[in-house]
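[Automated response] Your request has been received and processed.

Submitted sequence:
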Amino acid sequence: MRVALVHDWLNQMGGAENVLETLVEMFPGAPIYTSIYAPDLMPPEYRQWDIRTSFMQRLPGVARHHQPYLPFYPLAFERFRLRDYDLVLSNKSAFCHGIRKPEGAVHVSYCLTPTRFLWLYESYREREAIGRVADMALRPLLALLRRWDLMAARKRVDYFIAISEEVRQRIKRIYGRESVVIHPPVDTGKFTPSGEPPEPYFLVASRLIPYKRIDLAVEAANRLKLRLLVVGDGRDRPKLEAMAGPTVEFLGRVSLERLRRLMQRCSAFLFPGLEDFGIAPVEAMAAGRPVVAYRGGGALDTVVPGVTGEFFHPQTVDALVQVLERFDPLAYDPAACRRQAERFDTGVFKEKLTAFIDARIR
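Generated structure:
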């Protein structure tokens, strides 16, 4: 079977790139069509892949500032000329599902989300602090891009796969398309229980950007005088450090080994944002520790209240404080947390995706 992989852009690491790495493992040698690629910003092993970029690769400064080139992405993917493929597999959170498939091919779109800044613009504008003038200039462009996005979703994709139940419902509501859920791959083998009792600290591991809502965890730790360790970096770090009390410590980026150790020994992993899926909570459960998450988005697919963690709602400091005040880290069986995480292992993803594709192509 001849396969083409399609990805929005390759200039930053995130959940989409974790999925892409697994797709490359599943379809070795398959070319990757993408708008832009910045080798110096991506892992060295990516340089061994057959990556094919669009005309956008030549635009000035695009590798580090790709957002201002918003109007060009639809054209970038439409101008690719794919030939002699049986399967086009797009790993989509933005525009790559608009690629034109060859005659006779099947296009499966693994949808991380319908294009967020088009369809969830109001929340995106608020958290990105888009000013009034920029907002007024953007709205006519966004209206045009929504029409294109909807056309691409309805006419150029044969089958959608959603990463969570939340995204499945969003695909139905926005695109009017049915989809099945296949959760993203999580390498649970990297995170295993230590067999040691938990220590009195809570853990966050995340990019420090507004929509992750790390501020809720910091404020809750301040109020309850709980020890909170924050792993990660991002533009919100100065603001979060300024609001943090003496029990909150920022560790920045850490090695995989240290992150594994921190997850194994924490009282609980805190996940206060609204995410489409959320890999880090599954990694924490794989390490045998419970998760305290906001009750929404992908956490509804992964956290089992009373068994592998707890939910708080609404998305406020008060609600999180109420859960943490009565939280008992010894009430959760590490083996049960581990079993739940294994439902989302990379091997499970590969099996389900292979079965889905085989049923529709071979």
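Summary generated for your ticket: The longest strand covers residues 87-92. The chain has 14 helices and 13 strands.
If you did not submit this request, please reply to this message.
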